[in-house]
């Protein structure tokens, strides 16, 4: 019970979660843990003056910045992901029969559509990570609607079908989730970091499954200042998270998100860490390697909700220039 304090500001935040009782939901086939491998495809969607953007991207593995002129060094760092990284990640997933979710920026797939085609051929899902690799937090509603429309159009063209999930780079706007629900073509949103199992959001008479993501079990921690130096660091940390959630999954639904990036884990000294992690998880019984749309669908079914079907409101989401 929240104390009645006159100086305590009101909040719509949910600090309680499932404290009063875990959902009585079991994963398909009696699995005790759902593992969601998320492959972020951002290469070509980073800020670049050469693409007509307002600045160059400042987040990559070299700290130098080039302001006001084209940054060829930065661009080549990102290009490594599509030229080499994707092939290694794709092979690692295929070796263990893992079905993953590609969290893809629309502009990235517009430049490299073969990645979506290969992913779909392997049985992976292509989800939406925004048009550019950019935050939505300061976007006005019209701009955000246009970004959503462009993303859906680009993914539909490269993957052959529209995305069912969304994940904005870090900070969303106050309107993001409502706009996704109003669009009607989204089953789930991954813009949450507050739990180890899904929950629901509602607006305008519709609902959206929220699949929490994670920044700790994520290869982004190889970036300068992060905790990972070698592939074994990534594997050891993620295995510790897996083992704990696997134990908890005997009594309650749990999901583990593993975040990957083409240009990061796809490096030759790091890819072995992903291979070791996947082999460890695959060796355990009762592990469900699932696409995020499959997890969201199972969660809805477990709650007794009707089967989801897209109802896009396209008139308000036109992909204008």
Summary?
The chain is an alpha/beta fold. The protein has nine helices and nine strands.
Care to describe what's here?
The protein is an alpha/beta fold and 321 residues long. It has a single domain (29-55, 70-312), classed as Glycoside hydrolase/deacetylase (TIM Barrel, Alpha-Beta Barrel), CATH 3.20.20.370. It is built from 9 helices and 9 strands. Strands 1, 2, 3, 8 and 9 form a 5-stranded parallel β-sheet that branches. Strands 4-5-7-6 form a 4-stranded mixed β-sheet, with helices on both faces. It starts with 32 loop residues before the first strand and ends in a 19-residue tail after the last helix. The model has no long low-confidence stretch (mean pLDDT 94).
CATH architecture: Alpha-Beta Barrel
Q: Are there runs of 5+ residues with pLDDT below 50, and where?
A: none
The helix-strand sequence is EHEHHEHEHEEEHEHHEH
Q: From the alpha carbons, calculate the radius of gyration and give it in angstroms.
A: 20 Å
- CATH homologous superfamily classification: Glycoside hydrolase/deacetylase
Provide the domain count. Answer: 1
What level of helicity do the residues show?
25-40%
Give the helix tally. 9
**Which word captures the global form?**
globular
Q: How far is the first residue's CA from the last residue's CA?
A: 50 Å
CATH-defined fold name = TIM Barrel
Which structural class do you get from the secondary structure elements? Answer: alpha/beta
Number of strands: 9
Fraction in beta strands: 5-15%
**Assembly context of the chains:** single chain
Report the CATH C-level class. Alpha Beta
> Biggest sheet, in brief?
5 strands, parallel
């Amino acid at each position: 019970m929240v104390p009645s304090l006159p100086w305590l500001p009101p909040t719509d935040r949910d600090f309680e979660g499932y404290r009063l009782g875990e959902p009585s939901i079991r994963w398909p086939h009696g699995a005790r843990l759902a593992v969601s491998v998320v492959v972020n495809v951002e290469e070509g969607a980073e800020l670049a003056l050469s693409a007509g953007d307002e600045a160059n991207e400042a987040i990559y593995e070299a700290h130098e910045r080039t302001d006001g002129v084209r940054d060829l060094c930065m661009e080549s760092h990102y290009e490594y992901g599509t030229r080499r990284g994707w092939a290694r990640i794709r092979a690692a997933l295929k070796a263990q029969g893992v079905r993953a979710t590609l969290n893809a920026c629309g502009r990235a797939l517009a430049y490299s559509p073969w990645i979506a085609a290969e992913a779909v051929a392997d049985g992976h899902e292509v989800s939406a990570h925004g048009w550019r690799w950019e935050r939505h937090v300061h976007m006005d509603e019209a701009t955000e609607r246009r970004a959503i429309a462009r993303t859906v159009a680009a993914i539909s063209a490269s993957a052959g079908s529209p995305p069912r999930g969304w994940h904005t780079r870090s900070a969303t706007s106050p309107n993001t989730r409502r706009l996704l629900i109003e669009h009607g073509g989204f089953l789930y949103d991954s813009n949450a970091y507050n739990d180890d199992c899904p929950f629901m959001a509602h607006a305008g008479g519709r609902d959206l499954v929220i699949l929490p993501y994670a920044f700790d079990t994520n290869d982004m921690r190889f970036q300068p200042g992060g905790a990972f130096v070698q592939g074994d660091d990534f594997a050891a940390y993620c295995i510790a998270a897996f083992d704990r959630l696997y134990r908890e999954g005997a009594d309650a639904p749990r999901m583990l998100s593993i975040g990957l990036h083409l240009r990061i884990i796809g490096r030759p000294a790091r890819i072995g860490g992903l291979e070791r992690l996947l082999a460890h998880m695959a060796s355990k019984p009762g592990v469900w390697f699932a696409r995020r749309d499959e997890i969201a669908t199972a969660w809805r079914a477990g709650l007794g909700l009707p089967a989801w079907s897209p109802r896009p409101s396209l008139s308000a989401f036109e992909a204008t220039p």
